[in-house]
Amino acid sequence: MNKNILVSGGAGFIGSHVCKLLNQKGYTPIVIDNLSTGYKEFVKWGPLIKADIQDKKAVKDLIQKYEPIAAMNFASYINVGESVQNPSKYYVNNVANSTIFFETLVENNVKNVVFSSTAAVYGNPIQDKIDESHPYLPVNPYGQTKLMMEQILKDFSTAYNSKYVIFRYFNATGSDPELEIGESHYPETHLIPLVVDALQGRRESITVFGDDYDTADGTCVRDYIHVLDLAEAHVLGVEHLLAGKDSCIMNLGNGNGFSVSEVIDVVKKVSGKEIPVTSGSRRDGDPGTLVASSKLAKDILNWSPKITSLEDMVNPVIQWREKWFRKN
Ligand SMILES: NC(=O)c1ccc[n+]([C@@H]2O[C@H](COP(=O)([O-])OP(=O)(O)OC[C@H]3O[C@@H](n4cnc5c(N)ncnc54)[C@H](O)[C@@H]3O)[C@@H](O)[C@H]2O)c1
Predict the structure, then answer these.
(1) Topology classification of domain 191-223+255-290+299-327
(2) Which helix (H) or strand (E) holds 148?
C-alpha cells in the first residue's frame, strides 16, 4: 500500500516537524504550501507543491498523482492579535479556503483528515485544567475560525462519510534536536522565540505584559507543548483513522503551566546570560492561566508528552535560532 500523506502547511513550524516524523515512520509527506508564512527550506522529506489550499485544480492534480491515504491540515493564519485587527483575512483563509480544501479532499475520496485546532476555542478558562468538555467561548476571531472549522468537519463527516481527528494544541514550542528545522514564525509573536531573540540581540528587550495576574509570580501562565510531542500525536492520530477508528477531538498539552517570568529565567539559566526585560500593561483578552488536561489523548491514542521540562523545550530553540539567523 502506498504511504503518502497530504500535508497542507508542511513548510511551517509544526507541519515540517510532523513531516520529519512521518518520514521516519515510513510515510511520505506530500506538502502543499503557498509559502505565505512557511519556508521552502523546511520541506525536506517529500515533494513540495507550491500552491494555495483553495486552488482546487492544484489539490486535485496532486491527489491524482500521489493518491494520499490521508491528509493533515496545518495551513492557516495563526496570529491572534492580527485576527482582531484584520478578521476578514482570518475568516477567508482559515474558514473559506480551508472549507474549499476539505471539499476538494472529499470530492477526490481523501476522507481521513487530521486537523490543527487550538486552545483558543475555549476562551477564558473556567476550570484549572481545561478538558474537552470546557465551554467553547473564543474571545478572538482566530479561535472562532478554528471552532467553525471543527463544526464544518463534523458536518462533512455526517454528510460525506469522512472522518477526522481534531487536535487542540496549547502553546507549541521546541525544535528538531538535529536542528534541521526549528521554531520560526513569520512574523514572530511567540514568547519563547522572542525571549531567545532578546538573548541573542535580535531585539532590544522582551516585554512582560502584566505582572499582577492571580498567579504565583503575577505573570501569565501557559502550557507549553514540545513540537516533537505534537508530531508523535499526529502520527498516532492518522494511524487511528487508518485503522478505521472513530473521529475524535483531543487537547494536546503538557499539563503543566509555566509563567512568563519562569520562561525568561530558564533561558537566562541555560544560556548563562542576562536578558533585557521591560514591563508592559496587560493585553486585552489575555487570561492569567491556560493549562490543558490531555487525559483524553492518553485514553484514546495512548499519547502523553515526553519532553516536559522547560529547559528541554527552550534549549533547542536557542540553538536553532542561533543557527537559522547566522544563515538567513
Ligand atoms: N504554533 C502554535 O503554538 C499553535 C497553537 C495552536 C494551534 N496551532 C495551529 O497549528 C497549525 C500550524 O501552526 P504553525 O505554528 O506551524 O504556523 P506556521 O505559520 O509556521 O505554518 C502555517 C503554514 O501554512 C501555510 N499556509 C497558510 N495559509 C495557506 C494557504 N491558504 N494555502 C497553502 N498554505 C498556506 C503557511 O505558508 C505556513 O507554511 C495552524 O493551523 C495553527 O493554527 C498552532
Answers:
(1) UDP-galactose 4-epimerase; domain 1 (3.90.25)
(2) helix 141-160
- Catalytic position from the list 27, 77, 142, 169: 142
Nearest CA owner, ligand 1 atom 34: 33
Give CATH 3.40.50.720 domain extents, the chain.
Answer: 4-173+225-252
- pLDDT tens profile 217-228: 999 999 999 999
**Ligand 1 centroid distance, CA of 104 (Å):** 19
Query: Is residue 169 annotated as a catalytic residue, yes or no?
Result: no
Q: Which atom of ligand 1 is nearest to the CA of 169?
A: 6
Considering the segment(s) 4-173+225-252 as one domain, its CATH architecture is: 3-Layer(aba) Sandwich (3.40)
Per the listing, cell 483513522 goes with: 241
pLDDT-above-90 percentage for the chain: 96
What are φ and ψ of residue 293, in 5° steps?
-100, 125
Measured by CA distance, the residue closest to atom 29 of ligand 1 is 75
Cα gap 227→179, rounded to integer Å: 13
Report the candidate in 11, 22, 111 with the shortest Cα–Cα distance to residue 68.
111
CB of 176 closer than 8 Å to CB of 248: no
